[in-house]
Each structure stands twice: as structure tokens, then as C-alpha cells.
Specification:
Length: 96
């Protein structure tokens, strides 16, 4: 199974003013929420466990990114790519 989803976190997202004031950075939890939404929408799966997640490069507001998911349920691998390359990667577990 492989799937992909392009997304962008707008500069008006409510998490950004506090993360970090004066130089907003998209929190990792927001990226993982995008992953969970993709898995739910495309496959009807619920994200049940984050085995590991590494945030390789900062994701700034308005950055165009793409989540790529590979593997077979219940364990999947994901990468989040931006213009400059890999932004985050990890492994998760899901259930139907």
C-alpha cells in the first residue's frame, strides 16, 4: 500500500503564535495530525501508536509538503517531504 497527500499549514493556524513567538514553526504534532487525517480519510484507519518519529528539518508556515505512506497495516512507514527534501519520517501503527 502506498498513498500520498499534499498539504500546507497556513500562517493563520491557531498553534503558531505560541510556537514560537516572532518565528513561528509548525509543531510536529500538527504534522502527525495531518498523517492521521490522511490515514482516516483514505483508508478508514485509526492511528493507534507512533512507534517513532523524527523531525529532520523545520516546517515553516505556508510550506508546501507531501506525506508519503508505505507498508501494510497494522505497521506503516511515513515520510513528509518539502521542497528541500525530507522534513520528517517515522513508523506508526493503525487499526481499521
Amino acid at each position: 500500500m502506498a498513498s500520498a497527500h499534499r498539504f500546507r499549514i497556513g500562517a493563520d493556524h491557531p498553534c503558531l503564535p505560541g510556537h514560537f513567538p516572532g518565528r513561528p514553526l509548525v509543531p510536529g504534532v500538527v504534522l502527525l495530525d495531518e498523517l492521521a487525517a490522511l490515514l482516516r480519510r483514505e483508508h478508514g484507519w485509526q492511528l493507534t501508536r507512533i512507534i517513532d518519529a523524527k523531525f529532520v528539518a523545520p516546517v515553516w508556515p505556508e510550506t508546501e509538503a507531501e506525506i508519503r505512506v508505505q507498508g501494510a497495516a497494522p505497521r506503516l512507514r511515513f515520510e513528509i517531504h518539502g521542497e528541500a527534501g525530507v522534513l520528517a519520517r517515522g513508523r506508526v501503527e493503525v487499526r481499521a
